[in-house]
Design a protein that fits this description.
This protein has twelve helices and eight strands. It is an alpha/beta fold and 248 residues long. It binds 3-hydroxypyruvic acid.
């Protein structure tokens, strides 16, 4: 069965609640596509107004982060049940900005994957290598290690519903994009890895996005590749260009 495409915006730390509602209205007619899952992953403070603003449209809302406990003394954090109650469907984890700036490791990311599934959220699990690893030629080993750790104890049925985003760090916020062939090589490798860790049916079902400076001009070529099922979009998700990517 063909995998359904998924185009998700990662708004990062952009958009005040009022700017967020304006952006949703601006994009409303541009992101309509019955063949694509469209997701806005938004800052925590924007979740409630954005869930309200997308009501009646084809757009789902995602979070950019959460903590693995349900409640308690975790100042500043939000939980999976809070996200679910607010109407969130997806949540990003393992993004290189959280790994590098906030020190999140694969043990925590693995716990997040399991917690998200247990709560009924779809994880968008990011992985990707630094420029040094790309240059050293060891990027596949790195990605294999990340995914193997991050999915430890996660079942095949869960992985069938997982979204993996391959985001080479050297292509994030740099304006550099992996070429479509470079992106396809790693996305195909990730699918083979899922077949090795699970089985062929799970590998066929898991959706793999490319992320890292995907924009309106490179999206069509990236999305034409057989193992790239969608995109996790940074800066271009904050502009009308996002609609062009959804329809690329
Ligand atoms: C980017 O495109 O910059 C991203 O990090 C998407 O997650």
């Amino acid at each position: 069965m063909a995998r359904r495409r998924i185009i998700a915006g990662n708004w990062k730390m952009n958009m005040t609640p009022s700017e967020a509602v304006k952006l949703v209205a601006e994009l409303k007619d541009l992101v309509v596509n019955d063949n694509v899952d469209v997701v806005y992953c938004v800052p925590a403070i924007d979740i409630v107004p954005v869930v309200e603003a997308v009501k009646g449209t084809n757009v789902n809302v995602g979070a950019e982060n959460f903590y693995i406990e349900d409640k308690g003394a975790f100042t500043g954090e939000i939980s999976a049940p809070m996200l679910v109650d607010a109407g969130v469907k997806y949540v990003i984890m393992g993004h290189s900005e959280r790994r590098d700036i906030f020190g999140e490791d694969d043990i925590l990311i693995n716990a997040k994957v399991k917690k998200a599934f247990a709560a009924g959220l779809t994880p968008i699990l990011c992985c990707g290598e630094s420029l040094a690893l790309r240059k050293a030629g060891t990027y596949k080993e790195w990605i294999e290690r990340q995914i193997t750790w991050d999915l430890s104890g996660v079942t095949a049925d869960q992985v069938k519903n997982l979204v993996i985003a391959y985001e080479p760090i050297w292509a994030i916020g740099t304006g550099e994009t992996a070429t479509a062939d470079q992106a396809e090589e790693v996305c195909a490798f990730i699918r083979e890895l899922i077949a090795k860790l699970y089985d062929g049916a799970t590998a066929e079902a898991v959706r793999i996005q490319y992320g890292g400076s995907m924009n309106a001009s490179n999206a069509a070529e990236l999305l034409s590749k057989p193992n790239i099922d969608g995109g996790l979009i940074g800066g271009a998700s904050l502009k009308p260009d996002f609609g062009k990517i959804v329809n690329a």
